[in-house]
Amino acid sequence: MKINLKAPFGKKKAAETESVEEEVHVSAEEALRTGDFGKFDDEDEAKKEQEARDEKAKADKDLPPDPDALLEVRHLKKYFVLGKNLIGKPTSYLRAVDDVSFTLKKGETLGIVGESGCGKTTLGRTILKLYQPTSGQIFYNQQDIAGLKSAKMRPLRTEMQIIFQDPYSSLPPRSTVGGILSEPVKVHKIVPKAQTREYVLNIMEKCGLRDYYYERYPHEFSGGQRQRICIARALSVNPKLVVCDEPVSALDVSIQAQIINLLKHLQNTMGFTYLFISHDLSVVKHISDRIGVMYLGSMVEFGDKKSIFSNPLHPYTQALFSAVPNPNPDEKMNRIVLKGDIPSPANPPKGCKFHTRCPKAMEVCKHIAPVYKEYEPGHFAACHCYPQED
Ligand SMILES: Nc1ncnc2c1ncn2[C@@H]1O[C@H](COP(=O)(O)OP(=O)(O)O)[C@@H](O)[C@H]1O
Ligand code: SF4
Ligand SMILES: [Mg+2]
After folding, report:
1. Residue 341: is its pLDDT beyond 90?
2. What is the 3 state secondary structure string of 218-230?
């Protein structure tokens, strides 16, 4: 709106003489129909999108939890506060996990994949309530634990364990392997005290650790053996859900397969359910039943391993696939190299968050976020390359 500053009369007169040049904004429907986003209000559309997502989360809140799922996550958000004003009110956020939903069935493995910084660790930690969720629901065994205080979470702590990336820093250097593994067993009274040693030795055997390691210290072991100790520690309390956060990323490639095979074997014999986080699709491939692909805090594709591998829908998944080495020398690899760095989740791009790097980006992608939709049974994606309407 342009104001005529030369108005000679009082306020009222001035208002009357304003030369009105109203910005005319077009609706999303109109912009989509014409393909002209010149008069499209990105801010307004982002606000509307957010409101629609909040409405959806509200509407989904009363739906009963999936009876087949050990874990069901609905519209989960974890925002870190970046700045506060003088009275302590948050003024800016980093949206590390932004409206993520999925289910994980008992005894299955869900692989979460995506580049560094896309929110995988935050997702895993928020599910385990190591971070308090900003909003959303986390059903563990059909119980919403998102709002549970730590005292009420305590009985569930043993059932939900985490294995970290770095087997070097996650073990106390001054305790023996026996001491490290016995401690949680004693604290959580897993077996009568007198049976602790025998119980721990049994867990060690299951994890491929010799019994004489019991008296040894972590520094005496290689990375692979240390990760076995970490796995044994997590399993010693009889968990149901294990979050494996890049458990093989710090290991040599030759050792990676051994640890993955151990995790698979333990799942088959002990029935664990895994949330397996990795930046490496080729690692996730070996262990997962289902795969979720994350980008800048959002789930951009989700489906069972077969559908994701045979028919990756999202251009980001396609780019991740193109980087996986192909063992067949006759098949030509068409590597899709993503341009630019991953943007900051504190200031993500408008529209589709991936548009700044997407080889298939269209004009619409810069302005309107794609809908996360089911395109094949159980196979979801968020991309304008596919129909957006119901
Ligand atoms: N405690 C924290 N406080 C503020 N920002 C954080 C914190 N933890 C992670 N982040 C930010 O959240 C984003 C996602 O991080 P993370 O979950 O570690 O990603 P990933 O595990 O996929 O590498 C990153 O931008 C990271 O800098
Ligand atoms: S919505 Fe557009 S920018 Fe986003 S992934 Fe699909 S084609 Fe690429
Ligand atoms: Mg991480």
Report:
1. no
2. HHHCCHHHHHHHH
Give residue 115 CA to ligand 3 midpoint distance, Å: 9
Strand 298-304 and strand 143-144: the pairing is: unpaired
For 9-56, the pLDDT digits (tens) are 444 444 444 555 566 788 888 888 888 888 888 888 888 888 988 999
Pocket of ligand 2 from Cβ distances under 6 Å: 314-315, 352, 354-355, 358, 360-362, 365, 370, 383-385
Report d(CA 378, CA 307) in Å as an integer: 9
**Largest alpha-carbon pair distance within the chain?**
96
Where do the DSSP E strands lie in 114-225?
Answer: 135-140, 143-144, 160-163
Residue 123 in contact with residue 276, Cβ under 8 Å? no
Q: Is 88 left (phi over 0), alpha (psi -120 to 50) or beta?
A: left
| Phi/psi of residue 178, nearest 5 degrees | -60, -45
The one-character DSSP state at 307 is H
CB 229, CB 167: distance < 8 Å:
yes
Of the residues 80, 92, 162, which should be mutated to test ligand 1's pocket, given the most ligand atoms within 8 Å of the CB? 80
* Ligand 1 atom 14: residue of nearest CA: 119
Amino acid type, 162: I
Residue 147: which residues within 8 A CB-CB, separation 6 or more? none
- For CA atoms 296, 297, 299, 304, give the dihedral sign: positive
Strands of 90-105's sheet in order across: 90-105, 69-84, 135-140, 143-144
Looking at the CA of 381, name the nearest ligand: 2
Cα–Cα distance measured from residue 170 to residue 234, given in angstroms and rounded to the nearest whole number: 12
Pocket test for ligand 2, best of 358, 363, 375, 386 (most atoms within 8 A of CB): 358
Atom of ligand 2 nearest to the CA of 364: 2
With 0-12 CB in 10 A as exposed, 13-18 as middle and 19+ as buried, what is 269? exposed
Could you tell me the two tokens for 215?
Answer: 């008296």
The pLDDT of residue 165 is 87
d(CA 132, CA 309): 34
Q: Which residue has the tokens 């299951």?
A: 206
| Average pLDDT estimate for 206-230 | 95
Q: Are 27 and 41 in contact (CB under 8 A)?
A: no
